[in-house]
Amino acid sequence: DDDLFSSAFCENSEKLINVHLFALAAKYYSLSSLGVCTPLEDVLEALKGDREGTTGIKLDEFMNNKKSHEVQVMSELVDNIANYCGIKQVIDIGSGKGYLSSFLSMQYNLKVYGIDSSSSNTNGAHERNRKLKKHWRAYQSRGRKNLKSQSLEKANNRPVESEIECKTINGGLLNNVSSLQNQDQVIIQDLVPSCDFTEMATPATNTEAEADLLTCTQSHETKLSEEILAILNVLPADAVEDFSSSHYNSGELCEEEKRQRKITSLQTKARKSSESNLYFPLTSCITAETELSDIITDLEDCMMVGLHTCGDLAANTLRIFTAKPEIKAICSVGCCYHLLSEQFENEGECHGRVWGFPMCQYLKDKGWCCGRNARMSACLALERVAVGQMLPTESLFYRAVLQVIVEEIYGYCICSDRHVGKTFSKSSSFIDYVRRSLKKMELDDSKLPDSSIMDYYEKYKHRMNELEAFNMLKVVLAPCIEVLILLDRLCYLKEQENIAWSGLVKLFDPVKSPRCYAVVALKNQSCY
Q: What Pfam families does its record include (predicted)?
């Protein structure tokens, strides 16, 4: 295969001469073709056992289609990992606006600490979480009504045969399941809870069925009240609502009504207090040396997650995971490969620094370097282009000509320390784009008349098709470069002695979310 693919290039000039072979080679070395990924369905089945999934809020009502898809899929996997490991605390690194953190706390009742370096993101997450809770309570109320209706329907249609009455799965079950000891595949056994087979007489009438349901509901409510009253013991004295005469005429209420109203108020206060403590947005910059216990005072056995952790943050998250015994599992989806720091890109600089690439010892020994252009290419979305979402050719052309102008007129190379950003979308013309960009780079645009700017545009306009073809080749090559970065992270985990299982899992639809691969790992149970 290597010999076949090498014929895509001229042996003497090393120029590309066979685009078809080039595309086939790129496809061959992509993650989907190499067969190194573990299917998401297999991971969920192994972790979940007989535990049923959870249904809840419709995320597309509160997030865009891309974000709701990502949060829904990833939160299910995170919840299953947390349950398998028997943990309730989740650390969301690079939590941003808190979409994933909020959903994990409300949908799955996990205690989530969302850590982001931006205080504006953290403040926004606080406000967004507050608004989401209002909608969440409405969904919970609606869900309870639907559950009651479904329970009545099941009771009416229940056959008269014997039924299986399963014992409640206690919290210790997850600690007794088989561990993930094989480095190459997930082997989990004995996840089925023990069951008692008893004869249950079916109620003869709908009235009896409703009576059974009422008894069950009352039992549940009694338990809930006991839990709420236990919470009240730690609430401040002013947590109890004051029933003043402006709200009620106390003289007209009997003692029982007063007691019931007070209990209702206490329950509401307790519920709100409990809910508000499930998700904690925090502001902090995470590095490989970060001590989480300095940020989270009640740190306990937990797992780390990251939804599109940017640049070096993805690598640092993996390093923290392997180094800290209290972190039992990780699920990390990286992005922004162009912002990765590379050890061998600028040799001789910053000795002793922790680099984002490479991570594994194998590539370190090889002195491997991708370079910024390759990392930029890895960020491109082949699947989107394949379904017709073409590259923004005009903006790319503007940016290319701008680089020529800056180098020839100002003797300055546009590199990673200065960014033009999304100037194209704000510009009315090429002249406007150039002037906005120069000001953003703090370069004097007065020495450049409009006529000179347009001369550059006209000089290179006929080469726009070449630029488009070049960028299409970069798109085809993108998955191969992403493979290198992801396999480097996976190999780093394989090199660690305390990891029971690690793998790459394709979580998302790549058209909706191009950075769709998660690095997932669980530590040995002996580390628990």
A: Methyltransf_32 (PF13679)
DSSP characters over 43-96:
HHHHHHTTPPP-----GGGTS-HHHHHHHHHHHHHHHHHHHHHT--EEEEET-T
CA distance 479 to 484: 9
State the pLDDT at residue 486.
Answer: 98
Residues 397, 363, single domain; the answer is no
Q: Which domain holds residue 425?
A: 393-474
Q: What is the largest CA-CA distance in the chain?
A: 101
Those residues whose C-beta lies under 8 Å from the C-beta of residue 178, and which sit 6 or more positions away, are 187, 188, 189, 190
Structure tokens at 124: 């926004």
Sheet holding 279-283, edge to edge: 279-283, 111-116, 89-93, 302-310, 327-335, 517-523, 499-506
Specify if 160 maps to a domain: no
Rounded-to-integer distance, Cα 507 and Cα 76, Å: 10
Question: Which residues of the chain have a pLDDT value below 50?
Answer: 159-211, 213-251, 273-277
Instruction: Answer yes or no: do 436 and 470 share one domain.
Output: yes
C-alpha torsion sign, points 60, 64, 67, 69 = positive
3-state SS track over 86-110: CCCEEEEECCCCCHHHHHHHHHHCC
**Same domain, yes or no, for 450 and 414?**
yes
Residues 26 and 89 in one domain: yes
pLDDT of residue 124: 65
Rounded Cα distance between 518 and 507, Å, is 6
Contact between 489 and 318 under an 8 Å Cβ cutoff? The reply is: yes
The confidence score (pLDDT) of residue 260 equals 73
Cβ-contact 343, 355 below 8 angstroms: yes
Q: What Rg, from alpha-carbon coordinates, does the chain have?
A: 29
Pairing of strands 517-523, 327-335: antiparallel
What phi-psi label fits residue 350: left (phi over 0), alpha (psi between -120 and 50 degrees) or beta?
left
Whether the Cβ atoms of residue 179 and residue 500 lie closer than 8 Å to each other: yes
How far is Cα 105 from Cα 123, in angstroms, rounded to an integer? 17
CA 377 from centre of chain: 22
What is residue 125's predicted lDDT score, i.e. its pLDDT? Answer: 62
